[in-house]
């Protein structure tokens, strides 16, 4: 289907073991004991590009290797593993050769703790200690990546001013499949933000470098920012809700929640929701979806919107007398939704019309909430980018909680550091995370 232009939600992560590549030595990281390094020095922030419509994804550009090369990665809080397209004989690599990652004697070994740690089934075994660590990751939209784990330096500029070059394991994907008829992605891979041990954040945390906290702020205007660490978290105004225990290691999820329509309770209760920045749209199970659809349709009765059946962008669309330019043209026709999380007082997530509608290139307005059961998600519910826009959303793996606050995501906030008794000499600019190549020139 046309609208599934985006991978989302990792359901399965298999690591396989074989020897497709000749084995080579991998430089071992020496994990430090995180608690001895208290307080953690810092955070890292990355500008985000992309939008919900028409692109359907948000990306971060990450420097990898030495000398560093830039990789445009889809940010995905629904999966752990970060991978880039691999310059090995490759099926499903969409990028020109010079933009692929070339492994160079830096394969992670099968016996490496990280390889064992991510293997979800109990049959992790290595035929030979020299085996490489293969992985396969499959997304809920049936896209997948198969490859081998490598370890390389990922230069990061931290908010305390230091530039680090930690050695981080990630996937080098040499066999990708993309879902359905969707157009091929323009990204080079996926940045997995989940809290499994393979994620970049978990690795930075176990190296004692950054708190195990990640947040994103996706702008409805497109763009935004992403951060690792807790420096950017506002000191007040955040609603924190405990993660579901089942969510740890797999997805970030909250619940049970009830759905409010225009501030009033609906028949939808007991929802568990996965926060998934890798999904463009929001998916409810059929039962909840049908309730929402009825509420929205009934509420439009007598208003000047007609169903637009010729717009193939999404299943449910409406047109007005004139074509619409943005959701603000139709805001008055639609009511806000909200999720109320039962376990925490005042834990409310408001989903304004901008959080569940898009205006298409045909000038129609379409419902950005989809029936997940229909595409095989069963009873899962997924809050995708559309509903996470214009909020800072923070996944705090240290305290096992998720927080959010309405934010202007168009600029990276300044941070007041009480570190070293002083602030930053200059306002925090967008050159963090992605920064100039500071490596000495390598003679060709
Ligand atoms: C910044 O933080 C990192 C990671 O915690 C630490 O290794 C580094 O020494 C710190 N730099 C400064 C200037 O404090």
Automatic annotation (TrEMBL):
Gene3D superfamilies: Acid Proteases. Residues 58-405 form the Peptidase A1 domain. PROSITE patterns: PEPTIDASE_A1 (PS51767). Coiled coil: none annotated. Residues 1-26 form the signal peptide. The active site is at 76, 276. GO terms for biological process: proteolysis. Keywords: Aspartyl protease, Hydrolase, Protease, Repeat, Signal. One of its GO terms (molecular function) is aspartic-type endopeptidase activity. InterPro entries: Aspartic_peptidase_A1, PEPTIDASE_A1, Peptidase_aspartic_dom_sf, TAXi_C, TAXi_N. It comes from the Eukaryota. Belongs to the peptidase A1 family. PANTHER family: ASPARTYL PROTEASES (PTHR13683), EUKARYOTIC ASPARTYL PROTEASE FAMILY PROTEIN (PTHR13683:SF227). This is Aspartic proteinase Asp1. It comes from Cicer arietinum. The lineage of its organism: Eukaryota, Viridiplantae, Streptophyta, Embryophyta, Tracheophyta.
